[in-house]
Each structure stands twice: as C-alpha cells, then as structure tokens.
From TrEMBL:
Upper lineage: Eukaryota, Metazoa, Ecdysozoa, Arthropoda, Hexapoda
Source species of the chain: Plutella xylostella
Keyword Transcription attributed: yes
Alphabetic keyword roster: Nucleus, Transcription, Transcription regulation
Database matches in InterPro entries: Mediator_Med27
Subcellular location: Nucleus
Stretches the record annotates as Disordered: 133-154
Identification of the protein by name: (diamondback moth) hypothetical protein
Pfam families, per the entry: Med27
GO terms of biological process kind: regulation of transcription by RNA polymerase II
One Gene Ontology cellular component annotation held by this UniProt entry: mediator complex
Family listed: Belongs to the Mediator complex subunit 27 family.
GO MF term set: transcription coactivator activity
Length: 299
C-alpha cells in the first residue's frame, strides 16, 4: 500500500461507501415494495415523500463519500492496483471473479452518482404535493379552505347533480370517516368504483368488477380492473384543479362513465377488442376524446 495514504482516512471512505450502498438499497427496496397498507388514504403522496426522503439520504451520503475521498491522495501516472492484479491468477474458482467485481463496483458508484443527481434535480422541481397545505403562503392556505375544506352539503350537491346526469351510473354517498365523503359508483353491469374525497378533492380511487365486494384497500382479482384502477389514478391527477374543484370532479366522473362500453367497444388504434399480447380489452380512455385504447396502443 502507498505509505502516503492515511489508513484511517481510507477506512472512513470505505465506511462512507458502505453507508451509500445501504441507502441506495433502501431506495430499491422501497420501489420494489410499492404502496403499502400503512401508507393509508394518502398512499401515493406518502410513498413519493418517503421516496424523496430516501433519495435525499442517498444524496447526503454521496456528498459525504465525495468529501472523504477528496482528502485521499490522487495517484500520479497510472493507477497501481497493487495486489489486486494477482486476483486473476487465483486458482480458487470463487476468487477469480473478485477483480471483475472490483471493477464493477467502480462503475456502480459512478452510475449511482449520475442517477442520484438526475433524481435529485427532478424531485427538487416537484413538491410531490397536490395541495397547498404545506405552502408558506398564508394567502394560499386561506384559498385551500375555500376550495377544498367545503361543507358536506356542498359536496353532496355536486355529487347528486352528477348522479342525475346519468341514467346508467348510480352514485351513493357515505361518510364512514368523519365529514369526508366516500362515494360508491355502479356503472351499468360493467364495474363498481369507490372514490375517497377530502372536501371536493379526490384522494383515492378503487375500481372492481360488478360482482366483487367493493372497498378502498383491496385490489380487484381481475387484471382488467386493476388496470382500470391504475388508469383512474392517472385520470384523478390529470383532472385535479385547486381552483376549480367541482369541474375536476365532473370531468373525472365523465371520464369514468366512458367505461360503460369497456367490453363492447374495440380499440380505436388496432380495431381489436382484446390485445394480442395482454389479452385485455381497451382499458385506457383518452382524457380529451374519451376514446378507448389498449395500454399498448395509446402511444
């Protein structure tokens, strides 16, 4: 080993590297687990905030590693691999791959640095919040009170007006969680949906088959309705409007009503009822035209 290298400093750098690898593993573990039951009603928002916190930890650990390694002496000329050059001469099978793993670890660190920088810059541009609840502006918080924390009667009027607009879609309102409404929707004999509200803000959607038991937390046993649920969350975020919450709810309900022909209308792009690979009907509805598409055909 080069005598000019401080052993304690090198050990500190290796410790920082292990901490970085651990924090990155936590990010991938959180991504693989996805939404969990303990995320509650604000599942997606809490999951994204948790992911942002983990990525911030990766960024902090990466800065610590850089600061630690900056104090190590920079080798002049070609880098001396020392005794690691003899790893390829090992006769033991499980040691012959050590050199390749060493090189891959350097490449992995470089990619972590690059990807975490990209992720941090993207997440820093998005607060990951769909309301102004944590905004520093008192004026905007006051606006939240008038737009979303509305009286239950006003919410009922909006929902009942939408219910009267459709003869093949039945909407019922309940309030199992204090004053916030939970709306159950039956669309013909095609599907059922439940939408959790916070004032007039839609917080969660679950879509199931017509014969399934409806609740907020358990997914449908059918792939097609799990796909519709996924698309419904995308629609909920698309139509979200902090200044026009009633219009957002009406637009979403109009979009959901377009699924009345889920099993009868063919895809507008390929002309087939079932896609040849997924074997699913067109479970996507265009936000503007409400035309049906397979997920594979919507691009």
């Amino acid at each position: 080993m080069n005598p000019s290298i401080n052993v304690e400093q090198l050990n500190s750098a290796l410790t920082s590297l292990r901490t970085l690898r651990s924090s990155v593993s936590q990010v991938f573990e959180a991504l693989s687990n996805g939404l969990r039951a303990d995320h509650g009603e604000d599942g997606k928002e809490k999951f994204l905030l948790e992911l942002q916190e983990l990525l911030n930890n990766v960024n902090i650990n990466l800065r610590d590693l850089e600061q630690t390694t900056n104090g190590l002496p920079i080798p002049t000329g070609s880098f001396n691999l020392g005794n690691t050059t003899y790893l390829s001469q090992e006769t033991t099978q499980d040691r012959q791959a050590l050199y390749t793993q060493l090189v891959n670890s350097y490449k992995w660190t470089d990619k972590v640095h690059e990807y975490s920088s990209f992720a941090h810059s993207i997440l820093s541009q998005n607060s990951l919040r769909r309301s102004y609840a944590n905004s520093g502006s008192t004026k905007r918080r006051g606006k939240l009170q008038s737009n979303h924390n509305v009286p239950p009667g006003q919410v009922d009027n909006v929902i009942n007006t939408i219910d009267r607009s459709y003869t093949d879609m039945k909407i019922t309102i309940s309030r199992p969680y204090a004053s916030n409404a939970v709306v159950q929707i039956s669309l013909g004999h095609v599907l059922k949906a439940v939408v959790a509200f916070k004032g007039l803000l839609m917080e969660w959607v679950m879509v199931k088959g017509y014969g399934e038991t409806l609740d907020l937390w358990n997914e449908s046993r059918h792939n097609v309705f799990r796909k519709v649920t996924e698309n419904a969350h995308a629609a909920m975020l698309h139509f979200y409007s902090p200044t026009l919450p009633e219009l957002a709810v009406r637009s979403f309900m109009t979009w959901l009503h377009s699924y009345v022909n889920l099993f009868s209308e063919a895809c507008k792009r390929c002309g087939c009822h079932l896609h040849h690979t997924s074997l699913l009907p067109p479970a996507w509805r265009d936000f503007r035209t409400l035309e049906p598409f397979h997920d594979e055909c919507k691009q």
